[in-house]
TrEMBL record:
The gene is hemH. It comes from Shewanella cyperi. This is Ferrochelatase. GO terms for biological process: heme biosynthetic process. The lineage of its organism: Bacteria, Pseudomonadati, Pseudomonadota, Gammaproteobacteria, Alteromonadales. The keyword Transmembrane does not apply. Catalyzes the ferrous insertion into protoporphyrin IX. Its main location: cytoplasm. It is an enzyme of class 4 (lyase). It comes from the Bacteria. Pathway: Porphyrin-containing compound metabolism; protoheme biosynthesis; protoheme from protoporphyrin-IX: step 1/1. It is found in: Cytoplasm. HAMAP family: Ferrochelatase. Gene3D superfamilies: 3.40.50.1400. The keyword NAD does not apply.
Length: 336
């Protein structure tokens, strides 16, 4: 059997160049039902993302989900779309450019590329390009601070799936989590502190993480525990006492029980308990996206205010904050 995806160059063996591959989730090409459908079809067909028997899920996915959700999601994407396109893509490209510039400034000759797990630029196209350019040592940095199987695990699958057919394999490093790395915690704490300096300390800081079915936790996924650890370390660095902050989980999908407490239910509840001034930060997102800009800064703000909340502010993701880019450089430094 012929090996898959072999270009002529793949026979040439080592040529000593190194690369860093930043990986994120991906986003639709356009805020239209058609483009969102294409994106969701790829995303939601990933067995790491939806863990129910394949045949049953394919029936539900194609019979219901992909008929209804693309139009609804496209309307939400339209609310956050800018002249630069999807915020997740725009910010990811800026992160790549900033890391390139920083590593070059530090005297490193390493290549820095961006790939997306779903959609473009695909993991396989970027890996093939690196190979044909003579790169034979790759450090993969999935931009998910807390390891989870649906995100980090799936990013690894995409890399492994492409490399499976290669005759000559590059050296590989894979950074699986950075939820408790001091550089990550201090970048996050500094961005929260900046908000507190401008807007005052809120009654409560809500750390809202992307959710996951609770079942995954019981099956051994460490994500929930890693999220709580990030929060504890950030709270320690900010000197917050218990009661001054809390963890919630957002972006539920489907009818199963997900990790809780749910962010939206919490936003409806807090004002009834006398908490009328909150700041929300989303430490599972390395870049702002639909789930932060529309769901948190949009929907959850409305829920909070509707329930009697008076001050709501969303603290942006670390995006291309220099401390964030510096953290990335430190994470990959041992491998360059
Ligand atoms: C269906 C199950 C899902 C799991 C499990 C899940 C986990 C998970 N996701 C992120 C980060 C992001 N998710 C984003 C969007 C998004 N997520 C799901 C579903 C699951 N995510 C869907 C269906 C969507 C698409 C949007 C929609 O139709 O509602 C995004 C934003 C993408 C964008 O284009 O802006 C990010 C980022 C994490 C960290 C995570 C961890 C458990
Ligand atoms: Fe998600
Ligand atoms: Fe959402």
């Amino acid at each position: 059997m012929a090996l898959k995806g072999l270009s002529k160059q793949q026979g040439h063996g080592p040529r000593g160049k190194k690369a860093v591959l930043l990986l994120n989730l991906g986003t639709p090409d356009a805020p239209t039902p058609k483009a969102v459908r294409r994106y969701l079809a790829e995303f939601l067909s990933d067995p790491r993302v939806v863990e129910i028997p394949k045949l049953l899920w394919q029936l539900i996915l194609h019979g219901i989900v992909l008929r209804v959700r693309p139009a609804k999601s496209a309307a939400l994407y339209q609310q956050i779309w800018t002249e630069q396109g999807s915020p997740l893509m725009d910010i990811s490209l800026r992160q790549r450019d900033a890391l390139r510039a920083l590593l070059a400034e530090q005297g490193s000759e390493v290549r820095v590329e961006l790939a997306m797990r779903y959609g473009q630029p695909s993991v396989s196209s970027v890996l093939q390009q690196l190979h044909s350019d003579g790169v034979d040592a790759i450090t993969v940095l999935p931009l998910y601070p807390q390891y989870s199987a649906p995100t980090t695990g799936s990013a690894f699958d995409a890399v492994a799936k492409e490399l499976m057919g290669w005759r000559y394999l590059p050296s590989l490093n894979f950074i699986n989590s950075y939820h408790d790395r001091p550089e990550f915690i201090s970048a996050l704490a500094a961005s929260i502190r900046r908000d507190f300096e401008v807007n005052g300390k809120p009654q409560k800081l809500v750390l809202s993480y992307h959710g996951m079915p609770e079942r995954n936790l019981h099956l051994g996924d460490p994500y929930y525990c890693l999220c709580l650890k990030t929060s504890r370390l950030v709270a320690e660095e900010l000197g917050l006492q218990e009661g001054e902050y809390m963890n919630t989980f957002q972006s539920r999908f489907g009818k199963a029980k997900w990790l809780g407490p749910y962010t939206d239910a919490t936003m409806a509840q807090l004002p009834t308990e006398g908490v009328k001034d909150v700041a929300v930060v989303c430490p599972a997102f390395s870049a702002d996206c639909l789930e932060t800009l529309e769901e948190i800064a949009g929907q959850n703000r409305e829920i909070f205010e509707h329930a009697g909340g008076e001050r709501f502010r969303y603290i942006p993701a670390l995006n291309d904050d220099p401390a964030h880019i510096d953290m990335m450089a430190k994470l990959v430094a041992p491998y360059l």
